[in-house]
From TrEMBL:
InterPro entries: Acyl_CoA_acyltransferase (IPR016181). It comes from the Bacteria. The lineage of its organism: Bacteria, Pseudomonadati, Bacteroidota, Sphingobacteriia, Sphingobacteriales. SUPFAM superfamilies: Acyl-CoA N-acyltransferases (Nat). This is N-acetyltransferase domain-containing protein.
Length: 230
C-alpha cells in the first residue's frame, strides 16, 4: 500500500472556493471524522485560498490540504489550514506527502524572495504536533512545549490578529483555549488518534491539559527546512 500511495499525483489548485464539486467531495470525505463538519468546512474554505489534493484512479478524493498565503504583522506567511484523508488511506502517508509538497513549494518561493517565510497552524492532535516538530524547522512549541522570547512575541501577534476574541491562556502563549468549540472529532476518530499517538513518547498535550472536546488547540509556528532531506 505504501508504494501505491507514493505514486499518487499531487495537484495544487489555486482559488478553489468556487469549485462546488471539490467542496462537496471535501464535505463527503470528512463526514466520518467529525461529529458535525459543515461549519468547519465553511470556515476553512472561507479562510484558505489554495489547496493540495490527491485523487484516486476513479477521481475520488483521497486527501486534501488547504493553505493560505497571508500577512501576519505585515509579513506574508503561510497559514496551514485543514487537512484530511479518506478512511481507507489513513495512516498511509498521503496527507504527510501534501505537507512535504507545501514545504517544497515554500522553499521555491523563499529562493525567489531571498528570505524565509514563516508557517503557522493550529492543531488538536499529538500526531500533527509531533510530525511538524520532526520535519519542519525551528518549530515552536517544541516536543516539550518550550518556546523562546521571539516565539512568544510571534504567538502573541498571531493571537491578537487572527484570534482577537480568544482569551489569553495564563499558562502558555501558544495555547488557544476553547477556540474551536463547534469542531469536535467523531468518537471513531478520537479513538484512532489516541491509538496512533500512544507510540509517540510525547505527553505535552497531557501536561498542558489540551482537550480537543473543549475546543482547545495548540498554535504552532515553524519554517520549511532549507533542504528536502531535513
Amino acid at each position: 500500500m505504501e508504494a501505491e500511495v507514493l505514486t499518487h499525483k499531487i495537484v495544487f489548485i489555486t482559488n478553489f472556493k468556487e469549485d462546488k464539486a471539490l467542496i462537496q467531495d471535501i464535505l463527503d470525505l470528512t463526514v466520518p471524522s467529525y461529529k458535525s463538519n459543515m461549519q468547519l468546512i465553511e470556515r476553512e474554505v472561507n479562510h484558505n485560498r489554495d489547496i493540495y489534493i490527491i485523487r484516486g484512479e476513479e477521481q475520488e478524493l483521497l486527501a486534501f490540504f488547504m493553505v493560505n498565503y497571508e500577512p501576519v504583522d505585515g509579513e506574508f506567511t503561510y497559514y496551514l489550514g485543514l487537512s484530511a484523508c479518506s478512511e481507507t488511506y489513513k495512516g498511509k502517508g498521503l496527507v504527510k506527502s501534501l505537507y512535504l509538497q507545501l514545504m517544497h513549494d515554500c522553499r521555491l518561493k523563499e529562493q525567489n524572495q531571498g528570505k524565509k517565510i514563516m508557517l503557522w497552524w493550529t492543531t488538536a492532535t499529538p500526531i500533527v504536533y509531533y510530525w511538524f516538530n520532526k520535519h519542519a524547522y525551528l518549530v515552536q512549541p517544541d516536543m516539550e512545549g518550550a518556546y523562546n522570547a521571539k516565539g512568544k512575541q510571534i504567538a502573541e501577534k498571531i493571537v491578537a490578529e487572527k484570534f482577537p476574541t480568544t482569551i489569553k491562556d495564563s499558562q502558555h502563549p501558544f495555547i488557544l483555549r476553547s477556540v474551536a468549540t463547534e469542531t469536535n472529532y467523531s468518537d471513531h476518530e478520537v479513538k484512532r488518534i489516541s491509538d496512533a499517538s500512544k507510540n509517540l513518547n510525547m505527553n505535552v498535550f497531557e501536561n498542558f491539559n489540551i482537550n480537543e472536546q473543549r475546543g482547545d488547540r495548540f498554535l504552532m509556528i515553524g519554517y520549511a527546512p532549507d533542504h528536502s532531506g531535513y
